[in-house]
From TrEMBL:
The chain crosses the membrane at residues 15-35. The keyword Transmembrane helix applies. Residues 276-295 are annotated as: Disordered. It comes from the Archaea. This is Uncharacterized protein. Keywords: Membrane, Transmembrane, Transmembrane helix. The keyword Transmembrane applies. It comes from Candidatus Methanodesulfokora washburnensis.
Length: 295
């Protein structure tokens, strides 16, 4: 052994010493990962708690961001790093116990769901909500082309945020309440409620902008107060039917309601004008009788 150490010349070759140290640390990690009761590690428990904290904070921050406030005390990289750590716990525990039905493995899997949801919720936080809000406000002011141009610039970002929120909600629906700490259950449920509100708000805002795009010419005609004809009326009724599907809800409720109400008011104004014109036309002939014949 002495000859081996002399040959390695550790005292004169720090790189060789570092290489051996790295091998020893790697071996220690592998052995530790397969210990019979790795869930006793405080790091694992701390990471489980942190996953719930990240979910709670990210869902609250996302809801607040849509409402006009910004507050996030960790980054997307933090969320992904934690998620990968918990995935490592789940993988190692599955191999160590050889069964996904073991309680420790089930716990790891469910906290992995929580961590997955938090990464998606955190990713959705970076939505360009200011651009979406501006598009809705421009639409409510009858600036149709400007509104749709602004929406075009944020549509992909909005769609990605919606996808992130949907994935977060979906993965949270798989959490088994019996496999997470009891005091974590209400936090997880509250986070899911927030995410559902965010989804409904983003979905309806996007739907409203899509409706505006589909009925662009009719809306521009109404905004410019141009006269209507029978074919235009058909388009208005279709627009009104589409608007009835939009629900002003969630953090973007004021902007959605303002834009939807503005469009509905335009339609009602035109329909009222049409009825008034029809009434005047029919009224001018009311009581008319042809003159008596001289015969």
């Amino acid at each position: 052994m002495g000859d081996f150490l002399r040959k390695m010349r550790f005292s004169h070759d720090p790189l060789a010493l570092m290489g051996l140290l790295i091998m020893l640390l790697s071996l220690t990690y592998i052995v530790y990962s397969f210990l019979p009761h790795p869930t006793s590690s405080p790091n694992i428990l701390e990471d489980y708690v942190k996953a719930v904290h990240y979910l709670n904070r990210s869902s609250a921050a996302l809801e607040g961001r849509l409402a006009g406030t910004k507050s996030m005390d960790f980054s997307i990289n933090d969320a992904y790093y934690l998620r990968n750590r918990i995935q490592g716990y789940f993988h190692n525990l599955s191999l160590a116990y050889g069964s996904d039905s073991t309680f420790s493995v089930r716990v790891a899997r469910n906290y992995l769901y929580v961590a997955d949801a938090s990464t998606n919720s955190t990713a959705a936080y970076y939505i360009d909500v200011d651009g979406l809000r501006e598009a809705l406000q421009l639409l409510s002011l009858c600036k149709v082309d400007e509104a749709l141009e602004k929406y075009d610039s944020v549509e992909e970002n909005t769609s990605q945020a919606l996808s992130n929120v949907v994935r977060a909600i979906s993965v949270l629906s798989r959490v088994d309440k019996n496999s997470v700490a009891e005091n974590h259950v209400p936090i997880i449920e509250k986070s899911r409620e927030r995410l559902e509100k965010v989804f409904n708000s983003l979905y309806n805002a996007s739907m409203l902008m899509e409706i505006a795009r589909r009925h662009r010419e009719y809306i521009k005609m109404m905004c410019s107060r141009r006269p209507v004809n029978s074919s235009t009326l058909d388009g208005m009724f279709m627009l009104l039917s589409d608007l009835n599907r939009v629900r002003a809800t969630g953090p973007l409720l004021p902007e959605i309601m303002s834009a939807r109400n503005a469009l509905e008011s335009l339609i009602q104004s035109y329909l009222q004008q049409r009825r008034s014109c029809s009434g005047n036309t029919s009224g001018s002939g009311a009581g008319y009788a042809p003159p008596e014949s001289d015969d």
